[in-house]
Write a structure and sequence with these properties.
The protein is of the alpha+beta class. The protein is built from two helices and three strands; from the N terminus they run βαβαβ. It has a single domain (3-81), classed as Phosphoribosylformylglycinamidine synthase subunit PurS (Mth169, Chain: A). It starts with a strand and ends with a strand. 7% of the residues are buried. It is an enzyme of class 6 (ligase).
């Protein structure tokens, strides 16, 4: 069954306290090469049958109206992943 993967990230101007907590913890765990972290969300929408342009448009609409908060988040990626 094919899946549509939607990635949502906080807008650049929005503070990301989870990302700040992660970047603070990384050096304590021995990961010293990273200076910034932004945490986002990933959604996987399974589709029966073929993923058409119409279904992708519906996925984008769902991503922009339900899966993300357009005031503070951007939909950064929508892609089809075969099963």
């Amino acid at each position: 069954m094919p899946r549509i993967v939607v990635d949502v990230m906080p807008k650049p101007e929005i503070l990301d306290p989870q990302g700040k907590a992660i970047v603070g913890a990384l050096p304590r765990l021995g990961f010293t090469d990273f200076v910034s972290v932004r945490q986002g969300k990933r959604f996987e929408l399974e589709v029966e049958g073929e993923v058409t342009d119409e279904i992708l448009a519906k996925a984008r609409d769902a991503a922009e109206t339900l899966l993300s908060n357009p005031v503070i988040e951007d939909v950064v990626n929508i892609q089809v992943v075969e099963a």
